[in-house]
Design a protein that fits this description.
- The protein is mostly helical.
- Helices cover 71% and strands 0% of the residues.
- Helix 1 packs across helix 11 and helix 6 runs antiparallel to helix 7.
- The protein is globular, with a radius of gyration of 24 Å.
Amino acid sequence: MNSLYYQKRLSRNIGDKFFTSLSVICALIAILPLIFLVTYILIKGGSQITPELFTLEPNPPGDDLDAGGINPALIGTLIITTIASIIAIPVGVGGGIYLAEYSKGGAFSRFIRFGVNVLAGVPSIIAGVFIYALIVSTKILFGSMYSGLAGGMALSILMLPTVIKTTDEGLKLVPNELRYASLGVGASMYTTILKITLPSAFRSIATGVVLGIARAAGETAPLIFTALFSYYYITGFGDLFYEMGSLAVLIYNFALEPYDAQNKLAWAASFILVLSILSVNIFSRILAAFTEKTKRV
């Protein structure tokens, strides 16, 4: 007769403990590189932070020159990422809404999903080369070549698949009963999506947007082909049509320099970039929690 008490010496219980321990070890191994990477950047770059870092221009490399600051690159990153977000978020959320709410699983929607999956796996440099051929080399943007606007377009291509897929999957998780209830009381499909399904899927959509922004902010290759780099302050709207600095390209350029001052500036820029991405993630969590609290009230 089998005992109802837990028997730790049974083979199935020993196997359960073994595989549980193995999964914990694998999880730790998976997260340790991230912990070490972030910790090293925070220690190495945090020691280089000064008030002047945020106000000065970076100086051209030279053995007897101070590296300067990251002001143009920091502002340029914000501008280029904002341009990418303005393009990618409406298009991505709209595409996700179509796939989740309006498509009937036909050939066209399958083609869109296949295209999104392919685009998600395309190397980032391909997006840069594409915009270079379409925008930079043709000088179609008011005769300008390398520009912050072209850089934002390249990064928007990288953001699109993440936003579309998370919006699609997030809306699919919304119970159909909520849609039926809304439509049953006379609400239109537009009102149902705007007032019911989108707020219910906000957490998933916000996560996708944050992931897209995080990827875009840290990309280097597309910006080398589109925005290039600038050492100078951004002074007005017209600078969008000229070369524009960014933290990612500054890190790439200055990390390769043989001078210690430029290397230290690259570490400081890495610290600011990582801290910015962490802050965006934390903000998205707070916003999602606030939205959930508002819905309950």
